């Protein structure tokens, strides 16, 4: 407004964005972090997020680093790439993924994305026609809900069954689907449950999708990170039963989530996705979006070719050790139960028995108090769709399970709890150092030295 009156600004924020981001894991974690006490000198134990690169025992292979340096130095990747990704990278990924499939993927089946996150964004947006709905697992990865909500794609939830190793409740899938259902999502290996689906179960998923006339989005961002009785089976194997969109990235297997290189794959030997217009829409979306950094794309052929099995095995063994320790400790704690031993990915879901927890209202309250009293961050189940469950990241589980096992009966006496933790932590941390790297507790330092985790104990 002229003449000294107040100016009326004509712009404002987009409320839909604020709403969509309210249910992200990062949003919940930020709330928990607000409960940390600034005067607590102990390091924060972050068990709530899925970024293993924060921990010294999870370092990517130097061969991957060399590949990126070579790509940068070559000066061949300083320009814009093609919107679907540069051809050498797409060819290398097609070859890498075809090793586990009964047919050969072509580079044209591969679309490069900014992490697996953008691959999800692409396919959800592609499917978001008016009135369409999508079937999502509960518990699951809340980014799906946020993103679907933002593009007005209706979400319906089917359960994962804890007593059956978190298998998909296929009866629920059939009951939920209608003529507007476009797709169902499976996450394998699973976040947040640490489950791995068997070949037989995935086949049934594909058969159900075929019966319903829907496609399957298979989130395989944790591909090959399995350490139980079941091997990793790519859903694409069943691409001739129903069309499968696989999404993945190098974030987890190579421990480089910050490199932001992911992919979307059309596993569709019968050409159904093309006939239904899905392929054109994927290309259309990518034509109007940004791409992963070209030099990371340029490094991909070398990364995939040079990485040794020894590197992969070491990462999987570290995860397995953590999962075994965690599961065993949890068995001794009365107020939490783990219905199914984790066999893959980096997480475990445990259930809280609130009747044994004096003064705790629910999972969020539990996690806030855990942050406040012990500087331990654990994700409440409500953030992944299950109330009064907890998702923890397996790296430092020793301290959290110790806290739970010793701390719970003492929850109303935090001084005693602190004493118990400080004193009992030592011998347990010995193992933690062995498995995970360096941990420090007040005056006591436990060192896991170098990559082979030999242990030196100082008191
Ligand atoms: C199930 C699942 N899908 C997708 C992603 C995103 O992967 P990226 O970091 O490659 O974007 C994550 C990250 O934690 C995840 O857990």
From TrEMBL:
Protein biosynthesis as a keyword of this entry, yes or no, is no
Instruction: Name the source's superkingdom.
Output: Eukaryota
Q: Which UniProt keywords apply?
A: Pyridoxal phosphate
Looking up InterPro entries in the UniProt record yields: Aminotransferase_I/II_large, PyrdxlP-dep_Trfase, PyrdxlP-dep_Trfase_major, PyrdxlP-dep_Trfase_small, TyrNic_aminoTrfase
Q: Name one GO biological process term.
A: L-tyrosine catabolic process
Q: Which cofactor does it need?
A: pyridoxal 5'-phosphate
Q: Is Transit peptide a UniProt keyword of this protein?
A: no
Q: Which residues carry this modification: N6-(pyridoxal phosphate)lysine?
A: 252
Gene3D superfamilies tied to this protein: Aspartate Aminotransferase, domain 1 (3.90.1150.10), Type I PLP-dependent aspartate aminotransferase-like (Major domain) (3.40.640.10)
Q: Where is the Aminotransferase class I/classII large domain?
A: 43-391
- Return the NCBIfam families for the record: tyr_nico_aTase (TIGR01265)
Protein name (record)? Aminotransferase class I/classII large domain-containing protein
Could you tell me which species this protein originates from? Fraxinus pennsylvanica
């Amino acid at each position: 407004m002229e003449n000294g009156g107040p100016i009326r600004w004509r712009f404002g924020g987009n409320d839909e964005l604020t709403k969509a981001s309210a249910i992200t894991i990062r949003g919940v974690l930020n709330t928990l972090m607000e409960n940390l006490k600034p005067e607590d000198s102990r390091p924060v134990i972050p068990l709530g997020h899925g970024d293993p690169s924060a921990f010294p025992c999870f370092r990517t292979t130097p061969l991957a680093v060399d590949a990126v340096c070579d790509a940068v130095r070559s000066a061949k990747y300083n320009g814009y790439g093609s919107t679907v990704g540069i051809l050498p990278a797409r060819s290398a990924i097609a070859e890498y993924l075809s090793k586990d499939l009964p047919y050969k993927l072509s580079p044209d089946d591969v679309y490069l994305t900014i992490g697996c996150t953008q691959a999800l964004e692409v396919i959800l947006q592609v499917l978001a026609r008016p009135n369409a709905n999508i079937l999502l697992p509960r518990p699951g990865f809340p980014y799906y809900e946020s993103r679907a909500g933002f593009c007005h794609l209706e979400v319906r939830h089917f359960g994962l069954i804890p007593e059956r190793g978190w298998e998909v409740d296929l009866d629920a899938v059939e009951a939920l689907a209608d003529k507007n259902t476009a797709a169902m999502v499976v996450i394998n290996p699973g976040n947040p449950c640490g489950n791995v689906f068997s070949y037989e179960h995935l086949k049934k998923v594909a058969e159900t999708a075929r019966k319903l006339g829907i496609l399957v989005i298979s989130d395989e961002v944790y591909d090959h990170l399995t350490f139980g009785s079941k091997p990793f089976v790519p859903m694409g194997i069943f691409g001739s039963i129903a069309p499968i969109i696989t999404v993945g990235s190098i974030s987890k297997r190579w421990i480089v989530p910050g490199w932001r290189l992911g992919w979307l794959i059309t596993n569709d030997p019968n050409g159904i996705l093309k006939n239904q217009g899905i392929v054109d829409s994927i290309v259309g979306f990518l034509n109007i979006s940004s791409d992963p950094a070209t030099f990371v794309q340029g490094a991909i052929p070398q990364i995939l070719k040079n990485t040794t099995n020894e590197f992969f095995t070491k990462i999987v063994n570290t995860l397995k050790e953590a999962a075994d320790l965690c599961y065993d400790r949890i068995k001794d704690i009365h107020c939490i139960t783990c219905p199914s031993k984790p066999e893959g990915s980096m997480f475990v879901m445990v259930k809280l028995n609130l009747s044994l927890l004096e003064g705790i209202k629910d999972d969020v309250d539990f996690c806030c108090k855990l942050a406040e009293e012990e500087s331990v961050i654990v994700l409440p189940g409500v953030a992944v769709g299950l109330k009064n469950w907890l998702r923890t990241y397996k790296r430092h589980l020793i301290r959290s399970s110790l806290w739970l096992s010793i701390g719970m009966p003492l929850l109303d006496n935090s001084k005693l709890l602190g004493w118990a933790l400080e004193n009992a932590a030592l011998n347990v941390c010995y193992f933690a150092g062995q498995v995970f790297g360096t941990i420090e507790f007040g005056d006591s330092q436990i060192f896991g030295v170098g990559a082979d985790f030999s242990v030196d104990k100082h008191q």
